[in-house]
């Protein structure tokens, strides 16, 4: 499994490359996607199958996962987790909330960012950073990877803060060893018990995909300290 390469012990994952599993949906989930286009129904359904497999590793059944406030998943009490889907990939991760404060995962196709998006999602320093990486370490589409890192940061941030985070509120710096550091340029989330000024993540480029993960540990200095 691709995602497992990025996860610490105690974070459980499941991923699918195709929509070949008819995961039974709960009535409230069916109601949520009743008017969705087939592509959305497929990703919604398969990622919830992934959630079922991931939660099973924690010894839990899957409850209804209707998107909650701000679109964030409604995990069972005491569980933290994250979900992502892009063309050809769906994944879910979960962990015991006693060990992990929050998690964000994101998958993107390893392709350039669509025209015009770069301006909206990158700081000037980040534009210089990805341009330098493209020369020094050609391989992954660094612009898309940076976007993915910010999506993972947002999915980690939101369940803690309950507030929006702008693309200009975080500055990402990649390391070729498969890690990245993110400086949060705004005050720490009011709902979080600790300051949140810097988070660390991990990234992977494989099989035409870019994956990023942020895990804030409860006890270690995973960034929430
Ligand atoms: C919400 C968002 C992060 C989703 O990312 P995406 O790349 O479009 O889509 P993905 O397939 O990777 O992820 C979708 C999943 O993210 C999760 N998600 C959605 N909103 C979320 C939130 N507020 N908090 C945590 N997870 C969220 C859900 O599980 C969703 O799947 P579901 O709708 O099937 O339940 C994105 O659409 C968005 O709004 N981004 C703007 C905010 C941002 O990124 N700021 C940058 C800060 S540095």
Give a written overview of the molecule.
It is a single chain. The longest helix has 20 residues, at 38-57. The chain folds into two domains: 3-100, Ribosomal Protein L22, Chain A (Alpha-Beta Complex); 106-217, 4'-phosphopantetheinyl transferase domain (Ribosomal Protein L22, Chain A, Alpha-Beta Complex). It is globular and about 50 Å long. The two termini are 30 Å apart. The protein is an alpha+beta fold. The strands form two sheets. The chain has a five-stranded antiparallel sheet with strand order 4-8-7-6-5. The protein contains five helices and eight strands. Residues 44, 47, 67, 70-73, 83-85, 106, 150-151, 153-155, 158-159, 165, 167, 169-170 line the site of coenzyme A.
SSE blueprint:
Elements: E1 11-16, H1 27-32, H2 38-57, E2 79-86, E3 89-96, E4 100-109, H3 117-121, H4 124-136, H5 142-161, E5 170-175, E6 179-184, E7 198-206, E8 209-217
Antiparallel strand pairs: 1-3, 2-3, 4-8, 5-6, 6-7, 7-8
The structure holds coenzyme A.
Coenzyme A (COA) is lined by residues 44, 47, 67, 70-73, 83-85, 106, 150-151, 153-155, 158-159, 165, 167, 169-170.
Keywords:
225 residues, alpha+beta, Ribosomal Protein L22, Chain A, 2 domains, five-stranded antiparallel β-sheet, three-stranded antiparallel β-sheet, 28% strand, disordered C terminus, binds coenzyme A
